[in-house]
């Protein structure tokens, strides 16, 4: 039988992935994983039920967070986006398309139970028996909930071209067009129906409503890019399962860009500029730097 430390190493990535997909907050997901294993010290379920038991704790804690944050979400200034995070393709539960911003935003439209059933089935590959145990429903009900959730999402393009061979070169061209003030080139990189959404939480200047159409988005980006300080550093990183951009100065990260691509053009641009939502990815990058040092 494994001890608590071994259970933590075995299941922490799965539990984080479930909590993050459910909440859209990496910071809260990390806290919930820690709280879950703290609770495990107070109770010892059957070893053969440990995985489902831990997921059940996470599910209940996520429900509590969602309900506690409901009023805060209603009062949020401007577009709300999930917290960005760096993703490593080697991590089993953190490199799939279901971490993309567009996907996470769609999940937010489901109820807590629909979201959890869908996530456990799609990302966790859980049996309906275990899902029923987690959400305290019978198996037939869970199958119905899953079908309902899947139908609600099936008309949306959930799979971005994050792994397409053209993804990184396309984003590089996007950066070069902005740096060179090349409006014509930028327009050629954007889908006609492109959407730009920036989440600053009202803490930074910028558009408080999404910008749509290639002409408007390109014009907006050209105007705002001219205000970027010359010392700003732009890095390509794997963000939420695909190539993204991290813009920073010596004082820290200021912006994180995520993209959704379609037919070799940029269809969605998501920018996180809320300092409160950049803390987690900032720590990830600091750990990357530390681990790379001799």
Can you describe this structure?
With 294 residues, the protein is of the alpha+beta class. The chain folds into two domains: 4-75 and 101-153, Up-down Bundle (Butyryl-CoA Dehydrogenase, subunit A, domain 3); 167-292, Nuclear Transport Factor 2, Chain: A (Roll). Helix content is 50%, strand content 16%. It has helices at 4-23, 26-40, 50-68, 70-74, 101-107, 112-122, 128-135, 139-153, 167-180, 183-189, 214-225, 279-292; strands spanning 190-199, 211-212, 233-239, 242-249, 252-262, 265-272. The chain has a six-stranded mixed sheet. Helix 3 crosses helix 7 (128-135) and helix 7 crosses helix 8 (139-153). It is globular, with a radius of gyration of 20 Å. The model has no long low-confidence stretch (mean pLDDT 89).
Q: How would you concisely characterize the structure shown here?
A:
With 294 residues, the chain is of the alpha+beta class. It has helices spanning 4-23, 26-40, 50-68, 70-74, 101-107, 112-122, 128-135, 139-153, 167-180, 183-189, 214-225, 279-292; strands at 190-199, 211-212, 233-239, 242-249, 252-262, 265-272.
Features:
2 domains, Nuclear Transport Factor 2, Chain: A, 12 helices, 50% helix, 16% strand, Butyryl-CoA Dehydrogenase, subunit A, domain 3, six-stranded mixed β-sheet, 294 residues, alpha+beta
What is the structural class?
alpha+beta
CATH fold group of the largest domain: Nuclear Transport Factor 2, Chain: A
Q: Which of globular, elongated, flat, extended, rod-shaped describes the shape?
A: globular
Strand content: 15-25%
Distance between the termini: 38 Å
Give the strand order of the largest sheet, numbering strands 1, 2, ... along the chain: 2-1-6-5-4-3
- DSSP, total strands: 6
Number of helix segments? 12
List SSEs in N-to-C order: HHHHHHHHHHEEHEEEEH
Q: Return residue spans where pLDDT drops below 50 for at least 5 consecutive residues.
A: none
What is the number of domains? 2
Radius of gyration: 20 Å
Output mean pLDDT. Answer: 89
Q: Which CATH top level class of the largest domain fits?
A: Alpha Beta
For the largest beta-sheet, the strand count, sense and barrel status come to: 6 strands, mixed
Helix share of residues? 40-55%
